[in-house]
Design a protein that fits this description.
148 residues, mainly alpha, Serine Threonine Protein Phosphatase 5, Tetratricopeptide repeat, 2 domains, 72% helix
Length: 148
């Protein structure tokens, strides 16, 4: 209601208080409001706090925001901590950049999303035989595609 009346600062204050008390819905709305008014860092902070507390919706929103910013390091840190949303977004960003080497690194580290995106990228680049070998035999320790 406050935001509807034009009191965005008041709405942010109320939502922040509720989010700090563990209200996941308020945290999501707060992050949306902050991002909507250009405070993406504030939105990331709110979502990171909620995601670290186990809120899966916040983890998904956070991964989306980090990906939109192209924050590979932020996504990597979250993926390393077991955040599947971040692992998926990270793989998508790397594939979008055509970064085969980084995708291979992430496949080797156990990111299954990176494996799918690596296969997709190889096929997109016209390297279907290589993609099939990867699918059948996996990667060598050096990141090259195994032959047998």
């Amino acid at each position: 209601m406050l935001a509807g009346r034009g009191d965005v600062d008041g709405a942010v204050e109320v939502l922040r208080t509720r989010a700090d008390r563990g209200d996941g819905y308020a945290a999501g709305r707060l992050a949306d409001m902050l991002a909507g008014r250009g405070d993406v860092d504030g939105a990331v902070e709110v979502l990171r706090t909620r995601a670290d507390a186990g809120d899966e919706d916040a983890a998904g929103q956070l991964a989306r925001l980090l990906a939109e910013r192209g924050d590979l390091k932020g996504l990597q840190a979250r993926a390393d901590a077991g955040d599947e949303h971040a692992a998926w977004r990270l793989a998508d960003l790397l594939a979008g950049r055509g970064d085969l080497d980084e995708l291979r690194t992430h496949v080797d580290a156990g990111n299954g999303y990176a494996a799918v995106r690596l296969l997709d990228l190889l096929i997109k680049q016209g390297r279907g035989e290589e993609a099939e070998r990867l699918r059948r035999f996996g990667l060598n320790p050096d990141g090259s595609i195994a032959f047998t």
